[in-house]
Amino acid sequence: xxxxxxxxxxxxxxxxxxxxxxxxxxxxxxxxxxxxxxxxxxxxxxxxxxxxxxxxxxxxxxxxxxxxxxxxxxxxxxxxxxxxxxxxxxxxxxxxxxxxxxxxxxxxxxxxxxxxxxxxxxxxxxxxxxxxxxxxxxxxxxxxxxxxxxxxxxxxxxxxxxxxxxxxxxxxxxxxxxxxxxxxxxxxxxxxxxxxxxxxxxxxxxxxxxxxxxxxxxxxxxxxxxxxxxxxxxxxxxxxxxxxxxxxxxxxxxxxxxxxxxxxxxxxxxxxxxxxxxxxxxxxxxxxxxxxxxxxxxxxxxxxxxxxxxxxxxxxxxxxxxxxxxxxxxxxxxxxxxxxxxxxxxxxxxxxxxxxxxxxxxxxxxxxxxxxxxxxxxxxxxxxxxxxxxxxxxxxxxxxxxxxxxxxxx
Length: 410
Prior knowledge:
Elements: E1 32-37, E2 40-45, E3 58-62, E4 65-66, E5 70-74, E6 80-90, H1 94-99, E7 103-111, E8 121-128, E9 131-141, E10 146-151, H2 158-165, H3 182-185, E11 196-198, H4 210-218, E12 222-229, E13 251-256, H5 257-265, E14 270-273, H6 275-298, E15 307-308, H7 323-336, E16 341-346, E17 361-365, H8 372-381, H9 384-394, E18 405-409
Parallel strand pairs: 1-18, 3-12, 3-14, 4-11, 14-17, 15-16
Antiparallel strand pairs: 1-2, 5-6, 6-7, 7-10, 8-9, 9-10, 12-13, 13-16, 17-18
C-alpha cells in the first residue's frame, strides 16, 4: 500500500473551543448520535442506538478501567512535581504492575522536571485507619522520564496506592480540575475492576447505560468485552511531515479464548465500540497472519510474541488469509500452548488505504484534528469523514471525550 502520499493537511479542520464538551451530560445516553450508513447521514440520540444496528450485530467493548494516573509531590522548597503515568516497565505488563505490592517502574510525563534534582527522592504521606503510608518516587532516567515508585506497606498493591494518592487524568484539553462527579462519569458503566490500567477512558463507551444495554439485548444484539489499556499517546497530535513517521504509542491488549470463539461464530456484523476496540480487533487479525507466516516458514507453530508493529499491515499481501483462517490459527496456537488468554501489545497505525479485516462498524466520539484518531476515521469512511465532521459542527454536536457520539457503517 502507498501511504507516502498522505498529507496531514487533508485531515485537519477548525474546532472552535466552544464546541469542546467541558462536562458530561447528566444522563449518559441523552447525547446526540450522528448516524452514517453507506454515505447517508441522520441525526438521533444515543438511547436509540439499537434502531440503527443489524440484529446480528456483535458489539465489542473495551472494559479497561481508568486509574488515578496523576501523582503530585511537594518539595521542601514548596515546588510541586507532577508525575503522569504512561506505561510500566517493571513489571512490564499493566495488570502485573497494578498488583505489585512493593515497588514499580513506570515511564512518565514529569511536570516541572527541572525542579527535580538528580538523586533526589520525593515523598508524600497519608494516614489510613491510623496507619501512615509513605509513597516515594526516584528519578531513574531523566531523558526517558523513567521513575521508581515504592511504598512502605505490602498490604496495599499499586492499584490501591493509586486510589489513595492519585488523581484521575482528565484529558489535557479540558484544562480544568477534576471534580468529584468525574470519578464516576469518566468511567464506563461496564469498566472492570479487575482490568484497571488505562490512563485515558475509552470514551465511546461513556454513553452506554443499563437502559441502552436492555434495548440492545431485546433486539438480540450480542456483546463481548476485550481489554486495551489506553495510554497517554492517544492524545498525541501528529507533528511530522510524513504521517507514517509519527511515533505510535504501544498499548497492552488482552483477549480471552472465548472472545476469539465469539468472533469466529459471529464476525459478519462486528461493530467496535471505540477506536481502542477497533485497534485491538484489527491487531488480533494481524497476529493470526504472523502465526500463519511463521507456520509456513517453520512447518510448525512456534511461540511468538503478540506484538503488532505500526506499519506491519501495509507489508502483507491483501488477500493473504481470511479473517476466519486467522481466528482459527489463533485458537490452534492457544490450544497448543495451553493459553486461556492472549496478552500482547499493538502500535498499529490505521490510516487511509488500510484494509479493515474485522470491523464493519464503529461507535465513536468526535476527535481532535491532526490526530491518529481522525486518520483512523478517515481510513474507515473515506473522504466522507469531512462531511460527517461538518454535519456535526453545523448541528452543534459536542466534541471530544465528554462530547456526543456517532455510529459509522461504511
